[in-house]
Amino acid sequence: VPSPASSVRFVPSQEVLGEDKLMAILKERELKIYWGTATTGKPHVAYFVPMSKIADFLKAGCEVTILFADLHAYLDNMKAPWELLELRTRYYEHVIKAMLESIGVPLEKLKFVRGTDYQLSKEYTLDVYRLSSVVTQHDAKKAGAEVVKQVEHPLLSGLLYPGLQALDEEYLKVDAQFGGVDQRKIFTFAEKYLPSLGYAKRVHLMNPMVPGLTGSKMSSSEEDSKIDLLDRKEDVKKKLKKAFCEPGNVENNGVLSFIKHVLFPLKSEFVVLREEKWGGNKTYTAYETLEKDFAEQVVHPGDLKNSVEVALNKLLDPIREKFNCPELKKLSSAAYPTPSKAKPAEKGTKNSEPEDVVPSRLDIRVGKVISVEKHPDADSLYVEKIDVGEAEPRTVVSGLVHFVPKEQLQDRLVVLLCNLKPQKMRGVESQGMVLCASSVGEPRQVEPLDPPAGCCAGERVYVEGYEGGEPDEELKPKKKVFEKLQADFRVSEDCVAQWKQRNFLTKLGTVSCKSLKGGSIS
């Protein structure tokens, strides 16, 4: 085993705060470090990034503590309801340990702690009050901006969150905290305020964030962006097939990023699986070579996705096997109950409960218009090719000829409803609907909805408060789910798209239109 000093330098972190202090500690003894995770949504495959770093810390001789931050999960806009907190914490304990075992990390060298084991003590509670007397509201809000769920009317609990995370460093008696680079503001908050209580400033190490499959951050609350650790093989295939992986594009490419940050650190190589007629299998021992070949289109997105699918399933198989026992199946169902959907009404009954008609059932995504042509048989229709982050662009027919010039649609980002049943419009099958704002009075004006600047094709669009939930595979025309929801679509006085006064959002902000205040959306 190499010496602690040389090994910690080897750990591939994106950033280190307090490197001089780190090296000073290592000259005297082994480093004590912790990694914490709030027990909210189901852990996904991006969790392999910190797991691989934890393996590196152990190899370097560090004393590592893993914190299951159950109280934090409740404080973060109640992502974990109080009645589910114990169940979700137990689920996290089992699944994180299964992940570590799947990559060969010896569990006996780790210390596992729950937040509520010490965060409800008299001493800790008093320190929370002491900290709240010196921290400004501005600093608390700023510290949690990248981690705590941001809503229009934030709860006080979200302001407490960063302070508790700072105090954890003292109460876990560690030298350093390790986390994603999205934690940086909380880390600098801790460095600023812990000394005001007479506690030492800690070292902070950060790993990069893995972009989700849609190009944004991989998130437990955004279903299409991530692959769950217990997803079936067919679900993994389906999600990878829909993942954003444009030929030659290495920016915001979630598939490439997963190879870079997860598969390469774990295996030190990656094999692209190909048929012999396309050159046969090729083994890469350096990520940079793979990225260069993809950028030059030597490697095809389909081959890349298929290869990731095979490698990922090898990691997930031991976890799936462990959770195949009745006890853990029951725990999984209890910790993450499926939202109840009423059974369809039987013939002749009148009093059956209607099924839930909620915005999360809509598969709405950011799309980029690749091409626009006039419909060959209809003067009022365009036929567009729109990239929504899938292997091939979708063909969409839109009645926008009289409202939006062709050149204004070309290369434009739009908002596309993707799970309508495909239907032919004057002989051309349309595979989606471009959502547009329409004026109330005459003459009628129509403007396509605009996603926030910087969005990527395929990124999920959701309604505030309905971030979770899996969209329907296909909306059944007879159920009229879209029509019932669309009746409450409106444009606000600030030109923001809304459903029942809740904003349409992406990870980068609100969806809007140019000028049609108070308009309808269809």
TrEMBL record:
**Main location per the UniProt record:** cytoplasm
Q: Which Gene3D superfamilies match?
A: HUPs, Nucleic acid-binding proteins, Tyrosyl-Transfer RNA Synthetase
Task: Spell out the CDD domains in the cross-references.
Answer: tRNA_bind_EMAP-II_like (cd02799), TyrRS_core (cd00805)
State where the protein is found. Cytoplasm; Nucleus
The record's annotation in SUPFAM superfamilies points to: Nucleic acid-binding proteins, Nucleotidylyl transferase
- Biological process according to GO: response to stress; tyrosyl-tRNA aminoacylation
Whether Translocase counts among this entry's keywords is no
Q: GO CC: one term? A: nucleus
Q: Where is this region: Disordered?
A: 335-356
The keyword Protein biosynthesis appears for this protein? yes
Which keywords does the record carry? Aminoacyl-tRNA synthetase, ATP-binding, Cytoplasm, Ligase, Nucleotide-binding, Nucleus, Protein biosynthesis, RNA-binding, tRNA-binding
Domain annotation TRNA-binding: ranges: 358-462
NCBIfam families to which the protein is assigned, alphabetical? PRK08560.1, tyrS
EC number(s): the record gives 6.1.1.1
Q: Where is the composition biased (Basic and acidic residues)?
A: 343-353
Give the domain of life.
Eukaryota
GO MF terms held by the record = ATP binding; tRNA binding; tyrosine-tRNA ligase activity
**Per the record, what are the reactions this protein catalyses?**
tRNA(Tyr) + L-tyrosine + ATP = L-tyrosyl-tRNA(Tyr) + AMP + diphosphate + H(+)
What family does the Swiss-Prot or TrEMBL record give for this protein? Answer: Belongs to the class-I aminoacyl-tRNA synthetase family.
> What's this protein's name?
Tyrosine--tRNA ligase
Species the sequence originates in: Brachypodius melanocephalos
Q: Which InterPro entries match?
A: aa-tRNA-synth_Ic (IPR002305), NA-bd_OB-fold (IPR012340), Rossmann-like_a/b/a_fold (IPR014729), tRNA-bd_dom (IPR002547), Tyr-tRNA-ligase (IPR002307), Tyrosine-tRNA_ligase_regulator (IPR051270)
